[in-house]
Amino acid sequence: MHIRPVKADDIPAVQSVARLSWAHAYSGIYPPEYIEAFVERAYSFQSLEQSISRDEGDEERKFLVAELEGAGVIGFLHMRKVDERTHELLRIYLLPEHQGEGAGTRLLHEAVRRNAVRRLEAWVEGQNASARRFYEGKGFRAIRYETQTFSGYTTQLVVYEKDYGRAIG
């Protein structure tokens, strides 16, 4: 498995991973039409192109893909720097058939290493049990709960954090 910065050529693969992983992770939590509309909007070609362009202009690469020989892009991670101490994990998704194989862990470790992360926050859908297990298994702790409404759907979000102490690199 190879972890590398995303490229514009990866957009179709990232869209595919997003579509399949969202359908897998959020079925039973949100209606299919909500998932489809959200993915269409959040992972549009234009939106991803802008994210990749911003990332390419930054010496710290915060949008990474996991690539498997013979399978292509199987997952991605995207974070942003909030301040000198904190980064926020915006999205980390893997194809359902590759979840549990260590790709998410490798993406997370590589992003933390590349960006000298000291503290990382992640917002997680409260009903997404597999995501919550992933973060808790990596030593993240829930620091607050927030109820939010998106497109008419009210949801409970859990904010997780992990303090890495001094920067690693």
UniProtKB/TrEMBL annotation:
Coiled coil: none
CDD domains found in the cross-reference section: NAT_SF
PROSITE patterns linked: GNAT
Plastid keyword on record: no
Domain N-acetyltransferase: 1-165
Listed PANTHER family: ACETYLTRANSFERASE, AMINOALKYLPHOSPHONATE N-ACETYLTRANSFERASE-RELATED-RELATED
Protein name (record): GNAT family N-acetyltransferase
Lineage, uppermost ranks: Bacteria, Bacillati, Bacillota, Bacilli, Bacillales
